[in-house]
Specification:
heterodimer, A: OB fold (Dihydrolipoamide Acetyltransferase, E2P), three-stranded antiparallel beta sheet, B: Alpha-Beta Plaits, 31% strand
Amino acid sequence: MADASYPEDLLYHPEHDWARVEDDVATFGITWFAQDALGEVVFFDPPEVGSSVTANEFYAEVESVKAVSEVIAPLTGEIVEVNTALADTPEAINEDPYGAGWMVRVKLADPGQADELMDRDAYMSTL
Amino acid sequence: MLVTTPTLKRTPLFDAHVAAGAKLVPFGGWEMPVQYADGVRAEHEAVRRGVGVFDVSHMGEVAVSGPDAEAFLQHVYSNDVARMAVGAAQYALICNEDGGVLDDVFSYRLAPDRFLTVTNAANHDSDVAWMRSHAGGFDVEVADVLDAYAMLAVQGPIAREIVQALADSPLPARMQAARRIVHGREALVCGTGYTGEDGVELLLHPDDGPAIWDELLRRGAVPCGLAARDTLRLEVCYPLYGNELSAERNPIEAGLAWVCAEETGFIGSLAVGAARADGTAQKLVAFKIDGPGIARQGNPIVGGGEVTSGTMSPSLGVGIGMAYVPSERATVGKTFEIDVRGKLRTAVVASRPLYTKETDG
């Protein structure tokens, strides 16, 4: 697995999720800390395109060999794309949590909600 | 009020686990490695293709000796202990009067009147108490010797090769046990394991555990944790106490009729005999998930029954598991639905073991 990293261009949720906000669309995933705590991910159960996600509520499940974990949405909106490649390569969540391991893209209900998330330094201070 | 946290026991290999980068978790009252730095897939693969070593020192040992040792074990173990020659190993269950399973154990006959039994960590104390409470009338000593042993399982296609290179004479065959000098230390070498691969288990003096562990690693054995132990055993459908086996299940429904010799009159034999004759409402099956998803222990089965173990099979790349299902559905090829946290997943009853060398990749 890759070494610990927390990119500066992302916003972070205390439940160890990240969001990359570009205008009114955001990409969601889980942080290096989350994937390390989970261990090797063997299954990602994505939500459906078109469904709604609500900030602070779970929208998907990831399974490691031993455990099931719920993935929390950092922001509210409607899912416009899911990372279907994770069906065949769930290990990308471990190997590249901020790149190939992205989970969903969401059309944000209120892009201003992103102000409630933490920047990299604030998030790292919680670890 | 004084609040005390139960203290987790540590095996003689604890420092070696920390040195190898283990993630340690509580298991059966012990602080045990669940995996090491490279992760469970790498460990699983090492055992299927090369060699891995597991610290199983948390498992208990009971020494039974005396003129009535055989007769006593016939009374408390489900298998026919008299069929075990000196130097042989045997798998058996300890049952209560209702036929419920109290533990599953491996025993080695070290001498005509001396046996060593390996118990499950979580059941060890209750096993010893149960055995002692049923020893009345037998000229036998039941000794709790858990602290007298470290235990290492060396498993995989080249496991014997690397242990043989350290041993003073040929290793015992499968299901046999013998004293050997291994890397200069006394060891009881047993041709047994819990992975479906060839290999041996080593019962050692606790002080000798770390030196043998280090030497095995130096010779290429990959340290393996409980997570890989679980995926390996589940692929070959070995039952795990607390999952497939419990006091609420009898050996017949668990598919373990082959380790029950009711003619010996063991405790629970009448109930087991009745279950064998009458059949059981449910039976344990192995299954594969048809499609994506992983079922987990406790997931209910639509129409009755439940999953006892479930994981993603590293060797097969699909969700696998074992489950109790209504007996009329317990036929290879039949399908059933599992309620996985509100989503229905289709499972197919599969023949055991789920993994064999021939089905590999």
